[in-house]
Amino acid sequence: MPKRKYKIAVIQLNLNDVAENNLKKCISWVKDAATKGAEVILLPELYSSHYFCQSEDVDNFALAEPLYSTSFIAFSALAKELGVVIIVPFFEKRMAGIYHNSAYIIDTDGTEAGLYRKMHIPDDPYFYEKFYFTPGDLGFKAIETQKGKIGTLICWDQWYPEAARITALKGAEVLFYPTAIGWHPKEKEQYGENQYGAWMNVMKGHAVANGVFVAAANRIGLEKYIEGTDGIQFWGASFIAGPQGEILAQASHDQEEILIAEVDLDLQENVRQNWPFFRDRRIDAFGDITKRAID
Predict the structure, then answer these.
(1) What are the tens digits of pLDDT across the range 90-138?
(2) Which PANTHER family match (predicted)?
(3) pLDDT per position as a tens digit, 197-231
(4) Which residue among 16, 31, 115, 221 is least enclosed by CB atoms within 10 Å?
(5) What pLDDT is stored for residue 3 in this prediction?
(6) What gap in Å lies between CA 257 and CA 36, rounded to an integer?
(7) Which long-range contacts (CB under 8 A, 24 or more apart) does 220-227 make?
(8) Residues with catalytic annotation?
């Protein structure tokens, strides 16, 4: 029988380094999280490199890797060694000219429990992801693992209640959001508090509306690698929320950290019994949600 309680971990790191060093760092931190009792462990978005989407540069495609190569081999062995589930976000080269922002869900025996490809792709100043990533074509998923049934969405997906809803309706107990989000340094003083607050609030809202646990792993640090720009100051603040939007664990804005919290399925069931949002959905009236605009 599936466990009614299990521990999840979010790892918040500075990843402004080369792939080999980032891989070694992440392996070390995953081991530390497992030692602390974590059973499902989440890394930040695009773990293996600096956030290269600050520019549109074809040389950055060299950072991508084919399926089941470096990242999968390393973390598959690690998951089997530790007996944990690891969510590994990576830059996928599917074929020449088609690349995805993806995540492996690797089970406790080292096998692939699932693969997710980021569905929503942004194109904002210094977040030029449409240049690199083809939108995901695998849909929204709830993945069965030996520890629990989980859903993975990636960064920009976090702003879309439809993505959270569908993943939860498919049975996900936790929504995991590997993330790379930060401030433009010149805007931080004027807009920073509201930007960060919106990021927190929208995901806490997903937790409440769907009666699920939500875990977000961000990176930290100023990543400034393009001459003449201010870079991006990643704001950290990774967190784990419960099914009423309550914060179970919260990281700082500027420190590398491991957050651990317990997923309690009896609590989740109780919350959904008392707040029966799924029961009261008027699915007969939602047809227009699939339209781009209701003119």
Answers:
(1) 999 999 999 999 999 999 999 999 999 999 999 999 999 999 999 999 9
(2) BETA-UREIDOPROPIONASE, NITRILASE C965.09-RELATED
(3) 999 999 999 999 999 999 999 999 999 999 999 99
(4) 31
(5) 75
(6) 12
(7) 220/12, 220/13, 220/14, 220/253, 220/254, 220/255, 220/256, 221/14, 221/15, 221/16, 221/254, 222/185, 223/16, 223/50, 223/51, 223/54, 223/182, 225/16, 225/50, 225/54, 226/54, 226/55
(8) 45, 118, 155
